[in-house]
Design goal:
4 strands; about 10% strand; 2 domains; two-stranded antiparallel ribbon
Length: about 170
């Protein structure tokens, strides 16, 4: 393990802190030192899987592009982008900031959810809130799963078929 990996490992431990300021500083440090580091990306992904505090989730998602390594594609693997981009696929991929009133604790707040996510945690009480996912053209398109990726496509379909709990 090199020095950067050890430093990232220490920071990843701090991401589990209850103190929001410690977590925020650790996230920012990962953004500064973690460019192209797989351990930094794994730490951010694990953090997002378990973290429920929305401001910290938003900060982590803003840091991911700083850490993500941009791989150089070979000339042989280069594929010319199509002239038209599918608007349905773009809407499914996009993260939305939603103003919500929690049906459990009745507090007003904000949440971020990707277009394929049908549930997210309340930032006040932590309980799961479900939302209705609007219909998209990827549902009817024969190559819809290729546009957004199989995992997102399956989550989208699951959210569309799941009845809302009131």
């Amino acid at each position: 393990m090199n020095d950067i990996d050890a430093h990232i490992n220490d920071l990843s431990q701090k991401l589990q802190s209850e103190d929001s300021e410690v977590v925020k500083q650790s996230l920012e440090e990962i953004g500064r030192v973690g460019r192209g580091n797989r351990e930094a990306m794994k730490a951010l992904q694990e953090f997002l899987k378990r973290e429920r505090r929305m401001p910290l989730r938003v900060l982590a998602t803003q840091i991911i592009p700083k850490v993500k390594e941009v791989s150089q594609t070979s000339v042989k693997g280069f594929k010319k982008p199509s002239v038209f981009q599918c608007p349905g696929a773009e809407k499914i991929k996009r993260v939305e900031i939603l103003d919500i009133i929690c049906p459990h604790c009745r507090k007003k707040g904000t949440a971020s959810a990707a277009g394929f996510e049908h549930e997210f945690a309340c930032e006040s009480c932590g309980k799961m809130i479900q939302r209705e996912i609007p219909e998209s053209c990827i549902e009817k398109c024969p190559v819809g799963s290729e546009c957004v990726g199989e995992d997102r496509y399956q989550k989208y379909l699951k959210g569309r078929k799941k009845p809302l709990k009131k």
